[in-house]
Design goal:
With 327 residues, this protein is of the alpha+beta class. The protein contains five helices and 20 strands. Helices cover 20% and strands 48% of the residues.
Length: 327
């Protein structure tokens, strides 16, 4: 019995020592990272690690991160990162309500009931990304520019596709989206409901190098974007898209995305309300969409192809300008 007690005490002491060494290493690394950033780029009001004996619970109080080039900044009351002591390659993060994102012309405040994310890496010296999951509930974005958007639930994820090299499957699902009241007022004479039911994306992204701890050196480039399914449901207005874009030698996108819009007659007013189309252009756009719908055989459905080729982008017969840069 004494021998068992001695072994238990020794194991406890060793495990406590392991936790202390790991916790100290995490705290020192985070403090050092903040200290190494140029002035005005990163700051905080305190760093601590708790969770003994089975977790490393890192808390950074009042973190502020700023991009000095663009001026974009983010701050929060705190940020927390958790990891089990026996599985440090699986990290969970939690963010509070009250975050602020500073853009060039406005500040966006983020209120939320819950925001949590996890990152799972492959054990090993490379620490290659396996999967990520982010989930948010009751999010309300309020801007000093005067707009406000709400989202009941948001779920985003990535997962390594082991059947393809350097490829990850991407997912995004937003439900219960409440557009800004000003936008809904501009659409008062339409039958669009006050909630966008869903925004859903299922895609694959292929990169030139693994997403791992050596990314700073390998600098992975986006080479492939395969849109398996994308859809937006807003009452009788329905968008869907499917297709593939690849990066040319110059990084410009090439390929095709097939687009479908059901209930398209609501689209011109929506584009005007969003400020994407001038009111005097809306009738011309509506007539053009009528022609496209008639060619497809269903007067309530518009089907067009977004095409990127030779450095240019077009939507059906309409030229849109240069193709987007993928890297």
């Amino acid at each position: 019995m004494r021998a068992l007690l001695a072994i238990a005490l020794a194991a406890t002491a060793l495990w406590g020592g392991y936790w202390y060494v790991g916790a100290r290493a995490i705290e020192v690394a985070v403090v050092q990272w903040f200290a190494e950033q140029p002035p005005g780029v990163a700051s905080n009001a305190g760093v601590s690690v708790q969770g003994i004996p089975n977790r490393f619970d890192l808390t950074v109080t009042e973190p502020i991160l700023t991009d000095p080039v663009s001026g974009i900044a983010w701050k929060a009351p705190f940020a927390q990162v958790y990891a089990m002591t026996w599985k440090p390659w699986h990290v969970i993060a939690a963010l509070p309500s009250g975050q602020e994102i500073t853009l060039a012309d406005q500040v966006v405040r983020v209120a939320s009931a819950k925001i949590i994310a996890s990152v799972l890496l492959h054990p090993g010296k490379e620490l290659t990304l396996n999967e990520t999951v982010a989930e948010a509930h009751g999010v309300v974005l309020t801007s000093t520019a005067g707009w406000e958007i709400g989202v009941e639930k948001a779920l985003a994820s990535t997962r390594e596709d082991v059947t393809r090299g350097n490829t990850h499957r991407l997912g995004l699902a937003l439900t219960g989206i409440a557009p800004d009241a000003g936008l809904m007022a501009a659409l008062a004479d339409t039958d669009l409901p006050t909630r966008v039911e869903e925004i859903f994306i299922d895609a694959h992204a292929g990169f030139s190098a693994p997403l791992d701890r050596f990314m700073a050196q390998s600098q992975p480039r986006l080479l492939l974007l395969e849109l398996n399914e994308a859809r937006v449901g807003w009452g009788a207005l329905r968008f869907s898209a499917k297709g593939t874009l690849t990066a040319g030698p110059d990084g410009l996108a090439q390929g095709e995305i097939a687009l479908r819009v059901d209930g398209w007659r609501r689209l011109p007013k929506l584009l005007v309300a969003l400020g994407l189309v001038k009111p005097d252009i809306a009738p011309t756009l509506e007539r053009a969409l009528e022609v496209v719908a008639a060619q497809g055989g269903d007067l309530d459905v518009v089907q067009m192809v977004l095409k990127c080729a030779d450095g240019q982008m077009s939507l059906g017969p309409l030229p849109l300008g240069p193709a987007p840069q993928m890297f």
